Amino acid sequence: MNDMRQMTSLGRAIEEASFAIVDAEAGDHSFSPAEWQVVRRVIHATADFEFKSLLRFQGDAIGSGIAALERGCPIVVDVKMIEVGLNAHRLAAYGCHTHCFISDDDVMREAKMAQETRAVMAMRKANDLGLLRGAIVAVGNAPTALLEIARVVREQSEAPALIVGVPVGFVSAAEAKDAITKLDTAAIVSLGRKGGSTIAVAVIHALLKLSAEKP
Amino acid sequence: MNDMRQMTSLGRAIEEASFAIVDAEAGDHSFSPAEWQVVRRVIHATADFEFKSLLRFQGDAIGSGIAALERGCPIVVDVKMIEVGLNAHRLAAYGCHTHCFISDDDVMREAKMAQETRAVMAMRKANDLGLLRGAIVAVGNAPTALLEIARVVREQSEAPALIVGVPVGFVSAAEAKDAITKLDTAAIVSLGRKGGSTIAVAVIHALLKLSAEKP
How far does B192 lie from chain A, in Å, by closest CA? Predict the structure, then answer.
């Protein structure tokens, strides 16, 4: 629904009216104009203004994310809902491909053998394939996937261009995001428990829009 | 991630610990035990306890939804994120198929011609194909899709077995859900602006689990 070329005029009018309501109700904030484009799209996707106080931008998150997209970076995601929620046409125009390994047979088999979550083994597979360096890594569901990314960055210096760390959860989600905030890597995280695949999609769509609207 | 057969033991342990936290923090409520399985799974998927006061069960929502699944009903959804978030293995075991028409070429073409949203035309296509009667219809994204479903039920008595009306949005979302609450159809809605595809997935997964655990 976020591909402007695929939206009908009515769909576009609804989206514009929605963003106007978000802006009007959000009140004051200290985000940069570019950061606000990300925050307002997350609020638009959730109707939850709490994200205004939960979202954190680390390093040159916006600049690094946009530059990675424009290089046609890999986009490594933890769950298929992010993959299918992302605008395939827009990403293809940048030469970006999405990678989601969580349902791969080898990942499922190795997770059982290693007594790990599938999400962890899926991120290990991405690392083994050399996909993490310079990538946008988006985690919307599995805190363990984000903890694994933090470990890889710490131990191997395989730095993604941008980590979108927005897993939702009651166990380890807040800790996983804290682990990301201790890295030097550019990142956008939602502190605490809240997050989700729709939030990850909103963040990346905001970056695509910022890239498209660059002067 | 919700297919127990596909979850690792660690994944299962995390899920169980998460639900225990939800139960402990949620406090008192007046939901039936079966309804609570739905509400707690939505809270688990969002970390947002406000859904405890937003979710409404209309008619015999749980019973009607479970019976429809066990009949192998069509599952008509507004966006692909719901389709891909649903556990395909579990649904296949019931003989259920998902239907999502929003990206179909004819839907996109006709939406532009009719000056309607793609979501509306997608629901019209489902209706034209006779898929709505006895179906579970799940709307997580597009209020206009839910308004169209309400219109079809009012005007054609094409009653779905269950409407999962949880679109998120600032324009028309609350109104669309109100329109559903005026019908006699069994429904689960999230009042107000909040909702989303992850909420729709959580509701249907809760119904699948309730069916699997029936005595």
Answer: 9
Q: What is the pLDDT of residues A56-103, one digit of tens each?
A: 999 999 999 999 999 999 999 999 999 999 999 999 999 999 999 999
Closest residue in A to B166 (Cα) is A46
Task: Output A146 or A215, whichever has higher pLDDT.
Answer: A146
| Ranges under pLDDT 50 in chain B | 1-5
Q: What sign has the CA pseudo-torsion A63, A192, A115, B83? A: negative
Choose among B125, B123, B211: nearest CA to B163: B123
Q: Can you read off the two tokens belonging to residue B51? A: 């859904």
Strands B136-139 and B162-165: parallel
Question: What distance in Å separates residue B165's CA from the closest CA in chain A?
Answer: 15
* pLDDT recorded at residue B6: 62
Give pLDDT tens digits for A3-27: 444 667 877 888 899 999 999 999 9
Q: CB neighbours of A31 closer than 8 A, spacing ≥ 6?
A: A39, A57
- Report in angstroms the alpha-carbon separations of B134 from A8, B67, B186: 30, 10, 11
Side chain identity at residue A67, one-letter code: A
Instruction: Write out the two tokens for A146.
Output: 């984000």
Which residues neighbour A122 within 8 Å (Cβ) at sequence distance 6 or greater?
A78, A100, A101, A102, A104, A107, A145
Surface-to-core class of residue B157, CB atoms within 10 Å of its CB (0-12 exposed, 13-18 middle, 19+ buried): exposed
Q: Nearest-CA residue of chain A relative to B5?
A: A108
